[in-house]
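Supplementary notes for students who missed Thursday's class. We covered one full example, reproduced here. Read the sequence, then the structure, then the short commentary at the end.
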Amino acid sequence: MMVKRNSLIFLTAFGLLLTGCGKSGLEITKNDILEVARDDANATKSECENVSIKEQKSSYIVSFNTNGGSYEYKIGKDGIIKERSFKRGAKEETTETEKVEEPVKEEKSTTSKKEEKSSTSFDEGQQQAINSALANSGLEQSDVTNITCSLDSNTNQYTVTFVLNDVTTTAVVDAATFTVISTILG
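Structure (token representation):
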């Protein structure tokens, strides 16, 4: 999930609040759901137009447009993104996040912090994707270890992974705009 650190903290705190309360009737509000989707899309409130939130039995369907394209999310009432799609022009990319598996890919990897700090083995596009993914997470390359980056030419997206404090983060970055499409922690 493309979740910024602040959103993760908010969702974790909210989840703990829900767990700590004995009332099972508490649910995340439509505004909370919209915030989850906007954070995932890396879009501010002012950048979102034609916002629509439709409630279903166990989830919400959130859609909105930005200058970069149109987004549609299926988000559970627990705040977890179940599906997302991004449409730019005639091209549509959809990612289901209920069953997240590591993709099989060719990658260039550094295995230690020393190697990573001095590594210049990434091409220009890979380095730009890495920089975008790290900036989206509020990090510098020197903060993380085990950076990998690979390009999926079918979707025109880079997959960037790195480790911070024993937590692996995987970010998907658009290869044309170097915009972070999604971030998954864990």
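Commentary. Helices lie at 5-20, 30-41, 113-118, 124-136. The beta strands are 49-55, 59-66, 69-76, 81-88, 91-96, 108-109, 145-152, 157-164, 167-174, 180-185. If anything here is unclear, bring it to office hours.
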